[in-house]
Amino acid sequence: MDNVAIFFIIFNLNGLSSGLDKIMVFGADFLIYLMIILMFILGFKGGIKEKKVLLLALLAIPISIIIIKIIHLFFMEQRPFVQYHFSPLIFEKTDASFPSRHATMAAVIAFAYAYFKSKWALLFVLLMLWIGTARIFVGVHFPIDIIGGFVVAIFSLIVAVKFKNFLKMRFFS
C-alpha cells in the first residue's frame, strides 16, 4: 500500500462520527500546545528527568526547525488538500507538507521523554501518535510527512545530545 492509499484510508474516516471528528481536529490543531505546556509544567514541577527533558527539547526544537527549513529549500511537497482539491477539516496554510512541523515538535518532546526513560514517556508517545494520525485524518498531511517529522525529530535529538555533550566537555570538565 502506498502513501496516498494510506492517506485516503485514514482521511475517509472523517465525517463518519462528529465526536471522532472533534477529537481529531483537537489533536491536529491544539494538542501540540497542550504537550508543550505539560512539558514546561513537568520541567518545573517534576523530577530531574523531566528537567533534563525540558532542556533537551528546548535545544532540539530549534535544530529541528532549521532542518525543516533546509528540507523546504530542496523539496516542496504539496499538502493533500492542495494536490487533490478538497477542503480539510482545519484551516492550514498551503505551504510545504513534508515534513510535518506538528509531528516533528510532538516527536521531539515524546522521544526526549523516552530518551531519559521518564515515567511520562508513554503518555507523550501516545499524544505524538494522536497528533500524527489526526494531521492525516483532517487532510493536511500525508503519512510520509508524519514519518518524516518523526525522523527529523530523532536526528534533531541526536544532534542536540551531541551538542550538549560537547558543551559539557568544553565548559564543565
Describe what this molecule looks like in 3D.
By secondary structure, this protein is an all-alpha fold. It has a single domain, classed as Vanadium-containing Chloroperoxidase, domain 1 (Up-down Bundle). Helices cover 74% and strands 0% of the residues. It contains eight helices and no strands.
Let me know the average pLDDT: 94
SSE class: mainly alpha
Helix fraction, binned, reads over 70%
Q: What overall form do the CA principal axes indicate? A: globular
Write out the CATH superfamily name: Phosphatidic acid phosphatase type 2/haloperoxidase
Measure the end-to-end span. Answer: 52 Å
Strand content: under 5%
Q: How many runs of DSSP E, i.e. beta strands?
A: 0
Q: What is the total number of structural domains?
A: 1
Name of the top-level CATH class: Mainly Alpha
Could you name the ranges where pLDDT drops below 50 across 5 or more consecutive residues?
none
CATH architecture: Up-down Bundle
Rg, Å, rounded: 17 Å
CATH topology: Vanadium-containing Chloroperoxidase, domain 1
Total of DSSP H or I helical runs spanning 4+ residues:
8
Q: Keywords for this structure?
A:
173 residues; 8 helices; mainly alpha; Vanadium-containing Chloroperoxidase, domain 1
Furnish the topology, listing elements before pairings.
Elements: H1 3-11, H2 18-29, H3 31-45, H4 48-74, H5 80-83, H6 101-115, H7 121-137, H8 143-171
Helix pairs in contact: 2-7, 3-4, 3-6, 4-6, 4-8, 6-7, 6-8
